[in-house]
Design a protein that fits this description.
The chain is α/β, with parallel strands linked by helices and 346 residues long. 50% of the residues lie in helices and 11% in strands. A hairpin with a 2-residue loop joins strand 8 and strand 9.
């Protein structure tokens, strides 16, 4: 049976003391994850909705509405002519079965050609993903796999290839984003994939991705979904500069990233914003321009003091306050490494 993910029972919450890393050996399912002294943050569904990019919900409602109208029209036509209804049901079953078998085959391809992340296999990645999944209110942590990228720096999430989904990180992505020595940059990419799951971007896929897949409207919705996921990734990282670094490394590589002139990049973005042809070029695309994604993090970070996402004391939530791990240390301890992010070396 496909790997179903790790249940998130027993996770620490606000005020729970630091529990330390689990001992090496057999995986300890449900073992508590270390939390900073200031408390582990768990976002509610309303908090996650507050992180969405403006327009995302409206476009989704439009797709659902149009998709519902199409279903209603087909149903009414099917009453008059049962062959129409039979053809529609047959087509739907064909799409569902084709997608199911494709994702199932992909799951086992990944499972057989990658290394699964567990409590005893790359535990630093496992524990930071587990904390992030709990912070986003996921009941089960998706499976995480590291796959040979053959030079491709990318990550992606396959929600329906197993019951709770899987996150696939390419080996090139891991190498480039862990060159700083800790898990923060890697979690910008893994965290945004968790964000897609937490926000329901994969829910009701047939109505959204098949029936409601109207040109331009669907692509505009997808672009906003990616910007929302970037915001959630930054909340998990807890540091603006490290979040920008992750996306910049994906664009220019880890060698050139430290030499990036941010003023030049902002000027390039201004040219992009002023170009009608650039807007038309991106209109049918599912991803925003990368430099807009990078600078959108700055814009969102500047507004977070006014965010409706608040903790129990009514203060704006700047991050999920999870522990990030250092890959190269052997001593146990906590070190603050940036804007509320904490590194637990082990």
């Amino acid at each position: 049976m496909p790997y179903q993910g790790v249940p998130l029972q027993g996770m620490p919450h606000q005020g729970m003391p630091h529990q330390g890393m689990p001992q090496q050996g057999m995986p300890q399912q449900g073992a508590p994850v270390p939390a900073p002294a200031s408390g582990h943050i768990r976002l509610s569904p309303a908090d996650i909705d507050a992180l969405r990019v403006p327009g995302e919900r409206g476009l989704l409602a439009a797709m659902y509405s149009c998709g519902g109208v199409i279903v209603l029209v087909v149903a009414i036509a099917g009453i008059e002519d049962p062959r129409i209804l039979l053809a529609a049901v047959g087509f739907s079953l064909y799409i569902w079965l084709f997608r199911f078998l494709t994702l199932l085959a992909y799951y086992w391809y990944v499972f057989g050609n990658s290394v699964r992340v567990t409590e005893t296999q790359y535990p630093a990645i496992f524990h930071v993903v587990r904390q992030a999944a709990d912070g986003l209110g996921l009941q089960t942590m998706p499976g995480v796999f590291v796959l040979n990228g053959h030079g491709v720096v990318q990550s992606w999430v396959a929600k329906r290839s197993s019951r709770k989904g899987m996150i696939v990180l390419t080996s090139n992505l891991v190498d480039d984003l862990t060159s700083s020595g800790d898990t923060r940059r890697l979690m910008m990419l893994a965290g945004r994939q968790l964000g897609h799951i937490a926000t329901g971007h994969f829910d009701l896929w047939f109505l959204k991705d098949v029936i409601g897949r109207f040109p331009l409207v669907y692509s505009a919705y997808q672009r906003r979904c990616h910007l929302t996921a970037d915001r959630i990734g930054m909340m998990i990282v807890g540091d603006l500069e490290e979040s920008k670094a992750a996306l910049t490394i994906m664009t220019v590589g880890k060698t050139l990233h430290p030499q990036t002139n941010w003023n030049e990049l902002r000027a390039q973005s201004d040219v992009l914003e002023d170009s009608l042809f650039a807007w038309l070029c991106n209109l049918p695309k599912h991803y925003p321009f990368m430099i807009r994604r990078i600078l959108a993090l700055e814009e969102f970070h500047g507004r977070r003091a006014y965010s409706p996402v608040r903790d129990a004391q009514g203060q704006p939530v700047q991050s999920l306050n999870i522990i990030h791990y250092n890959f190269y240390s052997s001593a146990i301890g906590n070190v603050v490494i940036g804007n509320g992010a904490v590194s637990a070396s082990y």
